[in-house]
Automatic annotation (TrEMBL):
Localization per record: Plastid, Chloroplast
GO biological process: fatty acid biosynthetic process
A Pfam family matched in the record: FA_desaturase_2
Protein name per its UniProtKB record: Acyl-[acyl-carrier-protein] desaturase
Cellular component GO terms, alphabetical: chloroplast stroma
Residue sites binding Fe cation 1 per the record: 152, 190, 193, 278
Pathway membership: Lipid metabolism; fatty acid metabolism
Needed co-factor(s): Fe cation; Fe(2+)
Cofactor descriptive note: Binds 2 iron ions per subunit.
Binding site for Fe cation 2: 190, 243, 278, 281
InterPro entries in the cross-refs: Fatty_acid_desaturase-2 (IPR005067), Ferritin-like_SF (IPR009078), RNR-like (IPR012348)
GO molecular function: metal ion binding; stearoyl-[ACP] desaturase activity
Keywords: Chloroplast, Fatty acid biosynthesis, Fatty acid metabolism, Iron, Lipid biosynthesis, Lipid metabolism, Metal-binding, Oxidoreductase, Plastid, Transit peptide
């Protein structure tokens, strides 16, 4: 599944989720504003004077959390899950065919020097050729490639996520339902993505593989944060978004490293092949969600708005190079690198949203919508423009401030420096 990258903004698209603890004390230990936009609390305020406000805020946050949980738990009602059960024959007919049989599938050996096919001398020569092609790829693209690979290698996390979804999960590990066969078949296809990228990286000689491997282990250990973890509506919207994001990221990488870019034809072919798989996966999840939009448009549009208000946080959000606590600081740096390298940008994020709005006919939804459903539709339809405006403003601010690039040593590439303008 998926690459990094979401929202390159520091705030999400609804209300501020600043925690009370973070609000009280800044990095330098002084009291800071709770929420700059609220104007309730200024930087000179003492901790004592803001304590009642923090208390009120905490209780409001708790209340919000309860309402949010009630909202997504309503998606586990028996009548909603029944919709999923009734969809199973349709999944058999329209979703499972999007998986390729093993016999027709590419394997990493098809895209890389294969000693079984080339013999010892031929293998050695092909490896030298691969290394020569990789020599021209610039460091910022190497870093993006590592993040793509680490995300793919964190695969154990993703089927666990799908198997948390009520009504579709593979309860025994070998269920015969169409849903369960899809989850296993999809994971089996995904497994080749990390393999092929990992092997290319190893052969190219351009990466500190031990550091990369440690990053993979950390990410699988730390997992990923998912909103509404058991709701199939929220889960499928998330994965549809993700698969398209991944296809775009691998596709952009293929273009940038290929013949008209850095000149690495082998890597371009690998990334392009992976991107084509992601497109098939995207088609599957988009179709599934399309059916849910037909069956229960109110539930579907509210779930989509729920997720977009919290941003689509990608699986790599907890990526950690071992030097930054919690991963988030490093993730923010990586997101800026990907944006400036052009492998995944704010425009891509926005384009995915616009595409899904079109695919699921969100703008045209009217019949059967509750008040909340109508508000969700209106929010979603206005969101792409809002994101673009935020991005333009952020860009203007950066230009005005004449921000200088920050040099970042990256251990995946032997601590060479990648310079990037941070937001
Ligand atoms: Fe995928
Ligand atoms: Fe993938």
């Amino acid at each position: 599944m998926a690459l990094a990258a979401t929202c390159l903004f520091s705030s999400c698209y609804c209300k501020t989720h600043t925690t009370a603890a973070a609000a009280l004390v800044g990095n330098d230990g002084t009291a800071v504003a709770i929420n700059r936009r609220s104007w309730r609390c200024r930087s000179m305020a003492t901790a004592a004077s803001i304590a009642p406000a923090v208390g009120r805020r905490r209780s409001a946050e708790k209340k919000d959390a309860v309402v949010e949980e009630e909202e997504w738990r309503s998606y586990l009602a028996p009548e909603r899950l029944e919709v999923l059960r009734q969809l199973e024959p349709w999944v058999e007919e329209h979703v499972l065919p999007l998986l390729k049989p093993v016999e027709a599938s590419w394997q990493p050996s098809d895209l890389l020097p294969d000693p079984a096919a080339l013999g010892s001398d031929g293998f050695h020569a092909a490896c030298l050729e691969l290394r020569a092609g990789a020599a021209g790829v610039p460091d910022n693209l190497l870093v993006c490639l590592v993040a793509n690979m680490v995300t793919e290698e964190a695969l154990p996390t993703y089927p666990s996520g799908l198997n948390r979804l009520e009504g579709v999960r593979d309860t025994t590990g070998a269920d015969a339902t169409a849903w369960a066969r899809w989850i296993r078949g999809w994971a089996a296809e995904e497994n080749r993505h990390g393999d092929v990228l990992n092997r290319y990286m190893h052969l190219s000689g351009r990466f500190d593989m031990r550091e990369v491997e440690r990053t993979v282990q950390r990410l699988i250990r730390d997992g990923m944060v998912v909103h509404a973890p058991a709701s199939p509506y929220h889960g499928f919207i998330y994965v549809a978004f993700q698969e398209r994001a991944t296809a775009i990221a691998h596709g952009n990488t293929a273009r940038l490293v290929g013949a008209s870019g850095a000149g690495d034809a082998t890597l371009a072919r690998i990334c392009g092949t992976v991107a084509a798989d992601e497109k098939r996966h995207e088609a599957a999840y988009t179709r599934i969600m399309g059916k849910l939009f037909e069956a229960d448009p109110d539930a579907a549009v509210r779930a989509m708005a729920y997720l977009m208000r919290r941003r689509i946080d990608m699986p790599t959000a907890l990526i950690n190079d071992g030097r930054h606590s919690g991963g988030t600081d490093f993730y923010a740096r990586f997101v800026a690198i990907a944006h400036q390298a052009g492998t995944y940008t704010v425009s891509d994020y926005c384009g995915i949203l616009e595409h899904l709005i079109r695919q699921w006919g969100v703008e045209e939804l009217a019949e059967g919508l509750s008040g909340e459903g109508s508000r969700a539709r209106d929010y979603l339809c206005a969101l792409p423009h809002k994101i673009q405006r935020m991005e333009e403003k952020a860009h203007d601010r950066a230009v005005k401030a004449q921000k200088k690039p920050t040099p970042i040593p990256i251990n995946w590439i032997f601590d060479r420096i990648v310079s990037v303008v941070l937001p």
